[in-house]
């Protein structure tokens, strides 16, 4: 049961080899299959997450959320998608055409790329890179540019302010994000995702690195543009901020990218701090991928909970908080971790 | 941000730009337009444009009988309709010089204070929502309590928003039998509920850091500009018409007037929250002392006040609401002018906004708590 997906992958691989194709081509075909599985997974996840967000926000606000379309509103997203597909896709005349059109796509592609390195279960990594964490951070920072492109090209002052804020916010919170991960990498001794998960078989890193976990959580919220850091899309100040000029289908791509990002960033959080696919308390009869998804959904619930509880931070206080508080704290954390490792190894 | 760079040797050319927070906007509380000149995110000039909801109520009042005008007063400040009704009928009663029966006076106090609570709940809830859309949760909790108040009002007057319940000489109908028990049940439940969500908003670190020190207006400026209501009391001026110049029977009630010192947005917000508690106190006292009797004085069918003019003001939930009526002896007012608190409170805003950030413009506007129906009249 634990290895069911691995068994399927092996069966497919031997099937293709049986056709007489060379190893190289088989690997390419397997990569293509992985990519399509990831795409389907993202689609499914967005479906679930959008509904989850609306229901969770509803229950926090003492109202039921969508409950008309299907039992408990499960077909709500399909209804929304159909509505969006049916709308006219308007490109305002004054926009800068190419960045405007490319921004949603460029926002979506890095999200897809990130799904390649997260271990969803024991041995279930699409690409087990030596530099898994590094790859993740590098590709993850690409999401800043499409937001700015969207803001700039929209030729709309609201979007422009939103875009400027997006760049300021996301660039400022990259550094605490990276530095908080460094503590984990120092303890695990490797940047490969699977190694980090296995290094947590004794104790999850959230217990060894609680401050790094908090710093990471806050910086991740800022990277994801989720409240309380949703300034680029400050709804009550800038109508829709960066997304003001985007008509439904393109806006839907942005939303898919955002929810895809939420999932994968939670996935990273779980991998680095919460033991990845490993079962706590030795309950290994439940397959590893179920544990992974359970932990990720728990983190997503916390992220949504935070969103609907706290008001928004003002932009200058946001910068203050990131540069003057989070960054020094994460640096101190690295320092303390280093001392801790030294003491642990020598005594 | 850009200003600092231009003062160094290497000049970076920057430009101020105009942003129109237009009549259609999620958080301007109605059709209100604010034209801002921004330098980066800092406001250098602000200009408010009102009039999008002007319906000519004062002119229309000249062509209606005194009783018909009551329905117009509902629609000015639609979130505190009972209070606007009250101001108007008391003004006309002052002109005619009739005495309102005791029972009617107590009923009026109950309705006025309930309305004050409902209005403050909307103000608090929508304000938290302005500061961050995620405050919708707190908005919803406030509205749940407000729904109970609106149910009470529906029991008495038949409508939920524009009641026209006050009449010249008393109130329109007596309280139904189930009103007082329902009211007491509400008063028992609401303090716990307020405490629950009040802590979420007022004690939240992010909320406080957003609002502390933003939009400060000193006590002297507040008085000079004609600020009133919780806005004035948030700046440290202890002036509440219910205590300073009691109207109706307010002098028989024992309540406190919350006054806060700093004059920033947070204090105005906290003042409104504190007033909720005081209103509950007043209502309990009114229920206890509620006498039997008639609910409306003997009035002629067509009301023709004597010739003359009168001005009367009350403490509405948004500030001092004043009515000035000139009568020429006929059944219709010759001229009615309303001193609308939201309009007067909006005047210093253009100056308060200079030097603040864009996000603060919204929070300052929300802290003044305007209703566009009242601003435009």
Quick structural summary:
The complex is a heterodimer of chains A (347) and B (377). In chain A, 69% of the residues lie in helices and 0% in strands. With 347 residues, chain A is an all-alpha fold.
Give an overview of the whole structure.
The complex is a heterodimer of chains A (347) and B (377). Chain A contains 14 helices and no strands. With 347 residues, chain A is an all-alpha fold. Chain A has one domain (90-346). In chain A, 41% of the residues are buried. In chain B, strands 1-2-3 form a three-stranded antiparallel β-sheet. The two termini of chain B are 40 Å apart. The A-B interface holds A 57, 60-63, 157-158, 161, 227-228, 230, 234-237, 239, 307-317 and B 17, 19, 25-27, 41, 128-137, 139-141, 144, 200-201, 204, 206-207, 209-210, 357-360, 362.
Set out the fold topology.
The complex is a heterodimer of chains A (347) and B (377).
Chain A lengths: L3 H15 L4 H38 L15 H11 L10 H18 L17 H9 L3 H10 L3 H32 L4 H7 L5 H4 L1 H14 L11 H4 L9 H26 L14 H20 L7 H32 L1
Helix pairs in contact in A: 1-2, 2-12, 4-5, 4-6, 4-12, 6-7, 7-10, 7-14, 10-14, 12-13
Chain B lengths: L1 H5 L10 E5 L11 E7 L2 E8 L7 H5 L4 H11 L4 H16 L5 H30 L4 H22 L8 E2 L2 E2 L7 H24 L2 H7 L7 H7 L4 H5 L6 H4 L20 H24 L19 E9 L2 E9 L7 E5 L1 H6 L2 H4 L5 H11 L3 H5 L1
Antiparallel strand pairs in B: 1-2, 2-3, 4-5, 6-7, 7-8
Helix pairs in contact in B: 3-4, 4-5, 5-6, 5-12, 5-15, 6-7, 7-12, 12-15
């Amino acid at each position: 049961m634990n290895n069911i997906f691995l068994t399927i992958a092996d069966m497919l691989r031997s099937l293709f080899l049986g056709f007489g194709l060379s190893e190289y081509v088989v690997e390419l075909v397997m990569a293509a299959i992985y990519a399509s599985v990831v795409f389907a997974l993202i689609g499914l996840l967005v479906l679930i997450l959008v509904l989850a967000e609306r229901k969770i926000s509803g229950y926090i606000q003492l109202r039921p959320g969508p409950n008309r379309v299907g039992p408990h509103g499960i077909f709500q997203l399909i209804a929304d998608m159909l509505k969006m597909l049916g709308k006219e896709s308007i490109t305002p005349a004054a926009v800068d055409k190419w960045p405007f059109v490319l921004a949603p796509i460029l926002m979506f592609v890095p999200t897809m790329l990130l799904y390649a390195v997260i271990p969803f279960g024991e041995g279930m990594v699409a690409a087990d890179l030596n530099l898994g964490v590094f790859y993740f951070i590098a590709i993850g920072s690409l999401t800043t540019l499409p937001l700015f492109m969207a803001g700039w090209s929209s030729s709309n002052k609201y979007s422009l302010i939103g875009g400027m804020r997006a760049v300021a916010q996301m660039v400022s919170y990259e550094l605490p994000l990276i530095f908080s991960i460094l503590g984990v990498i120092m303890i695990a001794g490797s940047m490969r995702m699977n190694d980090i998960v296995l290094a947590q078989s004794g104790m999850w890193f959230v217990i060894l690195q609680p401050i790094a976990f908090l710093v990471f959580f806050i910086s991740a919220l800022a990277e994801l543009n989720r409240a309380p850091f949703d300034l680029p899309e400050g709804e009550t100040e800038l109508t829709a901020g960066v997304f003001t000029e985007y008509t439904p289908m393109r806006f839907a791509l942005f939303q898919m990218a955002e929810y895809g990002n939420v999932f994968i960033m939670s996935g990273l959080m779980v991998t680095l701090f919460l033991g990845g696919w490993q079962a706590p308390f030795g309950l290994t009869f439940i397959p590893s991928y179920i544990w992974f998804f359970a932990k990720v959904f728990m983190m997503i619930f916390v992220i949504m909970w935070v969103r609907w509880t706290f008001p928004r931070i003002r932009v200058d206080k946001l910068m203050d908080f990131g540069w003057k508080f989070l960054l020094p704290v994460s640096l101190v954390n690295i320092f303390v971790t280093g001392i801790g490792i030294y003491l642990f190894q020598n005594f | 941000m850009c200003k600092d760079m231009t003062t160094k040797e290497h000049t970076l050319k920057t430009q101020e730009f105009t942003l129109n927070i237009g009549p259609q906007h999620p958080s301007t509380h109605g059709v209100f337009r604010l034209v801002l000149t921004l330098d980066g995110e800092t406001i250098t000039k602000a200009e408010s444009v009102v009039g999008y909801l002007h319906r000519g109520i004062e002119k229309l009042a000249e062509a209606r009988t005194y009783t018909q005008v009551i329905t117009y007063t509902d629609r000015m400040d639609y979130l505190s309709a009972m209070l606007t009704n009250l101001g108007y009928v008391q003004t006309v009663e002052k002109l005619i010089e009739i005495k309102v029966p005791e029972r009617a006076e107590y009923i009026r106090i109950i309705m006025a204070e309930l309305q004050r609570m409902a209005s403050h709940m909307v103000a608090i809830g929508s304000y938290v929502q302005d500061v961050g859309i995620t405050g919708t949760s707190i908005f919803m909790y406030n509205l749940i309590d407000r729904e109970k108040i609106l149910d009470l009002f529906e029991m008495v007057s038949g409508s939920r928003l524009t009641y026209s319940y006050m009449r010249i000489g008393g109130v329109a109908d007596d309280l139904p039998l189930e009103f007082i028990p329902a009211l007491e049940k509400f008063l028992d439940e609401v303090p716990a509920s307020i405490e629950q969500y009040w802590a979420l908003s007022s004690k939240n670190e992010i909320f406080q850091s957003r609002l502390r020190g933003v939009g400060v207006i000193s006590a002297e400026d507040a008085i000079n500009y004609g600020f009133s209501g919780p806005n004035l009391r948030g700046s440290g001026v202890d002036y509440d018409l219910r205590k300073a110049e009691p109207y109706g029977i307010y002098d028989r009630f024992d309540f406190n007037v919350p006054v806060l010192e700093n004059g920033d947005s947070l204090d105005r917000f906290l003042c409104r929250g504190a007033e909720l508690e005081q209103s509950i106190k007043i209502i309990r006292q009114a229920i206890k002392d509620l006498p039997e009797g008639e609910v409306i004085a003997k009035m002629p069918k067509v009301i023709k006040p004597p010739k003359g003019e009168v001005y009367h003001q009350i403490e509405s939930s948004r500030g001092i609401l004043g009515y000035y009526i000139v009568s020429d002896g006929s059944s219709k007012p010759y001229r009615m002018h309303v001193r609308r608190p939201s309009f007067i409170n909006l005047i210093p805003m253009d100056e308060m906004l200079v030097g603040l950030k864009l996000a603060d413009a919204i929070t300052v506007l929300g802290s003044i708590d305007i209703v566009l129906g009242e601003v435009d009249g």
